[in-house]
Amino acid sequence: xxxxxxxxxxxxxxxxxxxxxxxxxxxxxxxxxxxxxxxxxxxxxxxxxxxxxxxxxxxxxxxxxxxxxxxxxxxxxxxxxxxxxxxxxxxxxxxxxxxxxxxxxxxxxxxxxxxxxxxxxxxxxxxx
Length: 128
Hints:
alpha/beta, 6 strands
């Protein structure tokens, strides 16, 4: 189990800002729940509006790509940029700050570390 820090979060926000570069996005949409934290920080960092819904030309962010289930509905959104902090698969149609093993359980700074083991067990049981 890997526990990420707020310092690593700040670094990920900066890296996403670099990945986006000079591209002008219409706003930022965060996939609930973990993507919302990134979206708020990026909204401030890039001085872009936080969007309740994704829209053409926006930046869509999420904390982790595991199965693609939460990011896939935004895949064909015209002109959108899709970025995750941690990807458990090699990026194809999305971008990632970091790629890690699919077996590694990641605990983000905003998550309850005490419940992390139970969350991991439940997640793996649902997918086995």
